[in-house]
Amino acid sequence: MILRLILGDQLNENISSLRDVNKLTDNILICEVKSEATYVKHHKKKIAFLFSAMRHFSKFLEESNFKLKYVKYDDVNNSGSLFGEVKKATDINNYKKIIVTKPNEFRLYSEILEWENKLNIHVEIRDDDRFLCTTDEFNTWANDRKQLRMEFFYRNMRRKYNILMDGDEPIGGQWNYDSENRKPPKNGLKIPDSYSNKPDEITKDVIKLVDQNFKDHFGDLLPFNFAVTRQQALIILDEFIDKRLGMFGDFQDAMIEGEPWMFHSHISFYLNCGLLTPLECIKAVESAFYDNRAPLNAVEGFIRQVLGWREYIRGVYWYKMPEYKSENFLEASRKLPEFYWTGKTNMNCLKQCITETKENSYAHHIQRLMVLGNFVLLTGIKPDEVNNWYLAVYSDAYEWVELPNVTGMILYADGGVLASKPYAASGAYINRMSNYCKSCHYKVSSKNGEDACPFNYLYWDFLIRNENKLRNNPRMGLIYRNLDKMKSEKFESIRSDSNTFLKRIENNEKV
Ligand code: FAD
Ligand code: DLZ
Ligand code: SF4
């Protein structure tokens, strides 16, 4: 008799912890617990999504004749922690062992490693083979090189899974069509409607529960449109391929006011909690190319994200943890401005991205990277505070994927493990890739003074403040030579405008 624990982001019948299950004797345990729902103050919608998906998955398991114990958040005897619930279960039954698939966060993994001693029962932790690169494989690859560049990792993965390959060569002759993924938005782009899903009774119960128990958490609970079953998530994948994939490549980096979903796939929520698997998404999109339903720049662009970036990010996480969590290469020390929780700012790009995050618990990649991320990089916000925000607000956020994206990609806090240079940009980039600047209080064309776009002076001030850490980066040479040529009065205006601005955010004044 074995106890098999399934975590909230392991909702798949093929999860390794269920392999070799004996449906007659083994017990499966799934629990909604306070410790997981509050270790950061997750967005209300994220908790509702996960609890509803967990309940629907449990229903599916019960209908498939598994023996299941499901602990609801408001059960009177809920101990509030995974350990508490596992202990309760082992106090009642005489289990031979506990099986769990390796958690995707170091925090919980370290905790579970201690259970064997605490409970005096063997705890078998199995690899999470939903991922396409094992941690051992990644570590071997990483140990062999000085720089961990995604591009080379990605090529290996393409070869390994024979995706978009023509023999040993990439289809189309090029590995990467990134340069064809950067079209600015144009007027009259027709964005397909996003998925909507009327909550059923299970989801309605969960919405009520979250409303009652997580009042002080960030974000809007309603409208609630997430898929909560595998069947619904598969519909989202199909709809992406039918309606969005064709334009995904061209407009991957584009942002339009009032269009949070653009041509993205919106599958990260489902991939990360187990309702979808990466390989089935990759294969479905690859087939769309062979069936002439989507162009190569879109298909390769999508596959690069899932087979390349997603696996690479996960590899970096386990390769670098636990030290990675305390990295702060640029010694950033400012607090996260209050407006990241309210959206109350005159900077229209930030206002739009924060408001959409609050409404949807989603923002697409370039909003996370080049608007929200760019601002916290340029203003020197502490990595801990930024990580906490990103982990809390997005429904696809778990530390394995959030931390490298924040600490490595947006903050350059790892000193260049993940990105070869900081993703810093002035207002010109945001203006080129969005229409946010048209209705902004600030002028993107203005470089200094009260009405100037703050990104414009903050960009240079960031380079000046961090010169001793960044000047020797070979990819920053040209930028620093431009800075060297800058006239002294311009230099002074940048410093003075930036100091004023930074003081204002420190004092939580409206900017
Ligand atoms: P699409 O644009 O349609 O891309 C397809 C898929 O590719 C995504 O679903 C995702 O699984 C994968 N992908 C794309 N980029 C990345 C990446 N950089 N890292 C890992 N996977 C990627 N993604 C998360 O899943 N969880 C997070 O907590 C998260 N935090 C992020 C924080 C920052 C600062 C940044 C810059 C990116 C973050 N990302 C995160 C990556 C990316 O922004 C999201 O995966 C994407 O926006 C999800 O929307 P989508 O499914 O519509 O993606
Ligand atoms: C994110 C989350 C939340 C909000 N709640 C639960 C929960 O109540 N029970 C559970 O098993 N898992 C939950 N999760 C997902 C876990 O936090 C996740 O499994 C770990 O962070 C490891 O990735
Ligand atoms: Fe953002 Fe500057 Fe454009 Fe305003 S002007 S939307 S602050 S980039």
**Main sheet, how many strands, which sense, barrel?**
5 strands, parallel
**Overall tally of structural domains:** 3
What is the overall silhouette? globular
Extract low-pLDDT stretches: none
**CATH topology value of the largest domain:** Serine Threonine Protein Phosphatase 5, Tetratricopeptide repeat
* Secondary-structure content class: mainly alpha
Q: How many helices in DSSP terms?
A: 22
Main sheet strand line-up? 3-2-1-4-5
Give the tally of β-strands: 7
* Ends apart, CA distance between termini: 61 Å
* β-sheet strand percentage: 5-15%
Give the CATH level 1 class of the largest domain. Answer: Mainly Alpha
- Helix content bin: 40-55%
Return the average pLDDT rounded to an integer. Answer: 96
Order of helices and strands: EEHHEHEHHEHHEEHHHHHHHHHHHHHHH
Rg, alpha carbons? 24 Å
Which second-level CATH architecture of the largest domain applies?
A: Alpha Horseshoe
Write the topology of this structure.
Blueprint lengths: L1 E4 L21 E5 L2 H5 L5 H20 L4 E4 L10 H11 L4 E5 L4 H8 L1 H5 L2 E5 L8 H9 L6 H12 L3 E2 L2 E2 L30 H13 L16 H19 L19 H6 L4 H13 L5 H25 L18 H4 L5 H13 L4 H14 L4 H11 L5 H12 L16 H7 L20 H12 L1 H4 L6 H9 L2 H19 L5
Parallel strand pairs: 1-2, 1-4, 2-3, 4-5
Antiparallel strand pairs: 6-7
Helix pairs in contact: 2-8, 6-12, 7-12, 9-11, 9-12, 11-12, 12-17, 14-15, 16-17, 19-22
Iron/sulfur cluster binds next to helix 14, helix 18 and helix 19.
Keywords, separated by commas or semicolons:
511 residues; mainly alpha; Rossmann fold; Serine Threonine Protein Phosphatase 5, Tetratricopeptide repeat; DNA Cyclobutane Dipyrimidine Photolyase, subunit A, domain 3; 3 domains; two-stranded antiparallel ribbon; 22 helices; binds flavin-adenine dinucleotide; binds ligand DLZ; binds iron/sulfur cluster
